[in-house]
Amino acid sequence: MDQIEIEIIRKEISRWMSSKQRRSQLDGVRYYNGRHDILMRKREAIGQDGKPTEITNLPNNKVVDNQFKKLVDQKVNYLLGKPFVFEGDDKEYIKKIKSVFGKKVRRMMKNACRETLLCGICWLFPYYSSSTGEFLFKLFPGCDVLPFWEDDEHTHVKRAVRLYNEKIYEGTEPKIIEKAEVYDSDGVWVFTLDGGTLKPDPGSPHPYAHLGETALNWQRIPLIPIKYNDETPLLENVRSLQDGINLMISDFENNLQEDARNTIIVLKNYDGENLGEFRRNLATYGAVKVRSDGESRGGVDTLQVTVNADNYKAILDIFKKAIIENGKGFDSKSDRLGTNPNQMNIQSMYSDIDLDANGMETEMQASFDDMLWFVNCHLANTGKGNYFDEPVDIIFNRDILINESQVIEDIKNSVGILSKKTLVAQHPYVDDIEEELKRIKEEEQEEYMDYNAFGDK
After folding, report:
1. From CA 342, how far away is CA 350, in angstroms rounded?
2. Are 334 and 353 in contact (CB under 8 A)?
3. Which residues contact 150 (CB under 8 A, 6 or more apart)?
4. Which of 399, 433, 409 is nearest to 419 (CA)?
5. Is 45 left (phi over 0), alpha (psi -120 to 50) or beta?
6. How confident is the model at residue 457, as a pLDDT?
7. Is 45 domain-assigned?
8. Contacts of 221 (CB under 8 A, 6+ apart)
9. For residue 205, cis peptide bond before it (omega within 30 degrees of 0)
10. Is a pLDDT exceeding 70 seen at residue 107?
11. Residue 97 lies in a domain
12. Looking at residues 377-402, what average pLDDT do you find?
């Protein structure tokens, strides 16, 4: 990589770090973790100069009701709450795929789905563990990776930059330095970001992987994108609604706390020097001294605005329904489940999230195809067979609430009309179709053997 290319990458990194796209990605992560804009709110009023002035002597509650996090977790668990299943004609190949997609990778896929919703995109990096030699995938959040796409459809990456922090020690003092990894067809170029410049580390480019003592470089850039909503974070659809929910609850609490000791007070013949002293006496003793001069009688009156809790409740209900609709989630407390929870009502409740899950599943299917290409390379590299032309289907078992009794009754009524495999696949108690069919076959063989043994007697 020559100096001109390094300078181009440096400028692209600088533009990207301050771009609206990356700020949106970072905001998605921030909101999911509960750090909402309401936490930075100040109570203000018009000052003497006609400009807003911060007021510090009034309640300023900052309540976060994180409906956005609930929405993200709903979508993740709806699509990947249950194990996904691989199906294919070559059972030995399916067995080898399952050994790669173990519990670690399945957990990583759930995390990847969450990061996709937060940032609009995330990245998977195939690698070999340096300690165990195990073939794994690593997750990179979308806000850490700057891609250089080959096409306008954003399907092929010709180069990518990953930013991360590394802790080093200068003597006994820890220090954080910024690093940048550039992925291209030659391997991994490692740079240190120092004062806005890119300083290459010795030994670059490094090979992508080591299998034993053998250095490996993939034929593709080993970064697999998983996208959501045309790479637009979910927060973009619901941010104003989430902020509105936080604001309504915070303002409601503020208004409840503005009692007679810190609301508008009308003084008549106050027996004191200034208003500050009056406030102090009221807060300390709960009483103040007033006087009467002739016909002018002293007293203390308050002007209060009655807080109508029903108004706040009505607005909150509107906001919470709107955030579910705009975020394409589902209302787990829907009235449709209370009176007549039949399968049609349940499907109606899940219609929006199911529609969104269809798009997410389409993107994940494409990502799984890319992942399987690297898995096939791994199997070939380790002498476990050539499976590049072997078709595989990935089945997502969505975690949808169902009327199990109705489904089981429908399955019983379909015996003799549909194949046993189709019926088993639809049964709500079955996670692994092939394993369940194997068990059924073993039980049928045992029953047959018992029957023959009984007949011989």
Report:
1. 13
2. no
3. 156, 157, 158
4. 433
5. beta
6. 47
7. no
8. 157, 158, 159, 160, 183, 184, 185
9. yes
10. yes
11. yes
12. 86
